[in-house]
Description:
Elements: E1 2-7, H1 12-22, E2 28-35, H2 39-49, E3 53-56, H3 62-68, E4 75-78, H4 80-86, E5 91-96, H5 104-110, E6 114-119, H6 122-139, E7 142-145, H7 148-157, E8 165-172, H8 189-192, H9 202-210, H10 212-224, E9 232-236, E10 242-248, E11 253-257, H11 263-271, H12 285-288, H13 317-335, H14 341-353, H15 363-385
Parallel strand pairs: 1-2, 1-5, 2-3, 3-4, 5-6, 6-7, 8-9
Antiparallel strand pairs: 8-10, 10-11
Helix pairs in contact: 1-11, 2-3, 4-5, 6-10, 6-13, 9-13, 13-14, 13-15, 14-15
Amino acid sequence: MKRISIFGATGSIGTNACSIISSNLSKYKVEVLSANKNYKKLARLAKKLNSKYAIISDNSYYRQLKNELSGSKVKCLSGEDELANLASLKTDLTIASIVGIAGLKSVFNSIGKTKVLALANKEAIVCSGNILLKKAKNYKTKILPLDSEHNALFQIIEKKNFDLIKNIVLTASGGPFWNKKINLNKVEVKQALKHPNWKMGKKISIDSATLMNKVLEKIEASILFNLPLSKVKILIHPKSIVHGIVNYKDGNSVMLASYPDMKIPINYTLNWPIRTKTNFTNICLEKVKELSFFNPNFKTFPSLKVFNYFNDNEPDYSKFISLNASNEVAVNCFLRKKIKFLDIVNIIKKTVANFRQSNPKNIRDVFDIHEEASNISYNIIKNLRN
Length: 386
């Protein structure tokens, strides 16, 4: 049986992973399931999958979780320190799907303890890819990207003709505002959360609306596949059927396509390095009829202008950290209706443009730089209100 831990079990990625595992319980032994606040869903999943541990990050929900798990064999824990400790348990595969910088510590601790790290937390690579990849290499932990686009690129590239790659392409649906006549300055939260193709959490849905998800994913792809930022392209593909394209220097292009269902890349990752027979439906091209691609424009997606602040060939992790920190702060404030939609990108650009700091040497440095950048962003927001 394959031993598995899922950090962020109640989110979109975690829920889909649990669904696949629940249909194949003879193949998997679940060690840890974690959630931030959703103790009821966590308890249901823990009992259904018979996990050894269930941990709620927010200590204030510990008693509720314990009550929900009463009578079961699941061990109940809470808090960030315990979460970090559980990430250090030995597993065959760990799914890291906690959103944002909050997931970094569990990602770092799991490397060297898990054989395969299925990474859905793009922010971990963006903020500390140099540190994580070095540790993974030293401890022989295989990192598999779990986002649909990076997973597609991994499937195409994996150890094949890497030196012949001309560039790679990440596709983006365009979110709720692509090709729409709308005043972006008057966008409401409920509009920005309405993604046309994917069912996702609030933070990633807003990132999709601003296209900040692709900004982060472009940086992530550059680091994971060791390519300059200029060799990672972004194309708008409204149907979300082609997830990644690799263009080779010999004139050939290889793309990976599937219907927009996160269970497909999750299933691939759970079973890697082999493929398994499933009930997922393959693309029926005669029904799709048309696959369209467009260059994103800066008017609808001004977030793409942040690449002007980055060095193409050498990752500037302090800048990347400031990018992520300011985005997390701005999105949170937008969701609480403290700022306007277009303020999100403006806050990010102001934070990144003026940020000066040395690159982190360890995880503690990453958190310190992230906190410093977050404080700058909060001050920018404070001045917006005055």
